[in-house]
Description:
222 residues; Rossmann fold; five-stranded parallel beta sheet; 2 domains; alpha/beta; 5 strands
Amino acid sequence: MRLTVINASPRLKTSNTAKLLDQFLKGFCRVENNTYEIIYYNEIDSDDAALEIFKQAENILLAFPLYSYGLPPSASRFVYRLSSLEDSKKRSMGFFCQYGFNEACHARSLERQLENMCHELKVEYLGMLIRGGCEGLRYRPESANRAFYKKFEIAGSNFGQNGRFIKQEMDKFSAPEFSKGSIFSSISGRLFVAIGNFFFWRVLLKKNGALHKHWDRPLQND
Length: 222
């Protein structure tokens, strides 16, 4: 299987998406005759160039972090651009989605949208890998991530053998679907988010000159 991998993470090669893809593709290439090409979307000169890459590919894996329960801007531009594609070449397309929340439910609506998009484009849908609990990987020592990485390596090997994501396997891989915590865990979770927002996201916003936009709600503005 020849796989064209498009990494649509804004963080490019330093992203959690890239780290997890490395493990996934390690497993994928353990299957005989499997090869891949990886492309970083934000390094492509234009959306037209991205569309041309899609035209030349046969099996595509679009990888991205979940962004506000949807695609990050780079992946959105790519997907919207595909609507103008007009040819009869047979293609297949799968998706690789990671994010910080633990539960798989956060990505389910997007999963359905992407499956429907493939049907509309007459592209074979290869399924979607969903995995939460991935934020902060690059801040941990590699030894602490070893068991987590191994799961992605196995998922890549299974994908390489089957030529697609098997729904039953992916449901186990993505678990838990929902959180089942007590009142105490709910309160502690909210406290953890508040602390994380103040000491992590606030620092990133300030570093990128966007702290003054912290409370912006552009979709609600006229």
